[in-house]
Amino acid sequence: MISLTSPVRIWAHGMRAGVKLGLLSLATGALFASENPVVLGGAALGVGALYLTGGTRFARAGLDGLRMLWPFLLVIALWHGVTGQIAAGLAVTLRLLTAVALANFVTMTTQLSDMIAVMSWLLTPLRRMGLSTRALELSVALVVRFAPSLAQKGGRLTESWRARSPRRAGWKIVTPLAALAIDDAEYVAEALRARGGME
Question: What is the largest CA-CA distance in the chain?
């Protein structure tokens, strides 16, 4: 399975996946405890410094991974600008950016197999109750793996549209993107069936 882990090794690669995911959960919860843009801005700067501890190459790769956020941040800024809730909009924007950047940092420094192992450990009580958790564990892994892949394919469809038309692609790439997602899902399902299915 292809990993999203950064090839640039930093200190965080040596930390246990469970510790990193636990700290991520605590930090994300703390972000929702404050509405102060100054506090949230400080948290965002702290996360930026966290990326820089891995060097400029690692930080640049992390910044590239956050590019897909800008449409959402633009919508939030426009909405709060129109409604006159500038401080609230700034707080939501900083909270979203910081939380996703932290999650991206954990993803870049953690092997997918280690994340699945943590998920499997968390689901141990369900297995003791006789429930199969294999499908859920595999679903989490597939979502983590395919979300960036779909975003990349959406970007390529947009570039293809721009090469043929001066107009913006917009919603017109939704149908071909959905077709690509279904096509990928069929390939993955066939691969799973060829390997004996879920069990």
Answer: 58
With beta carbons less than 8 A apart as the criterion, state whether 150 and 182 touch: no
With helix as H, strand as E and coil as C, how does 124-152 read? Answer: HHHHHCCCCCHHHHHHHHHHHHHHHHHHH
pLDDT tens column, 82-125: 888 888 888 888 999 999 999 999 989 998 888 888 888 888 88
Q: Are 141 and 115 in contact (CB under 8 A)?
A: yes
Residue with tokens 């999203």: 4
Tell me if residue 24 falls in helix, strand or coil: helix
Instruction: Say if residues 57 and 110 touch (Cβ distance below 8 Å).
Output: no
Computed over its alpha carbons, how large is the radius of gyration of the chain? Answer: 19
Distance CA 99, CA 184 (A): 28
- As a whole number of Å, the end-to-end CA separation of the chain is 18
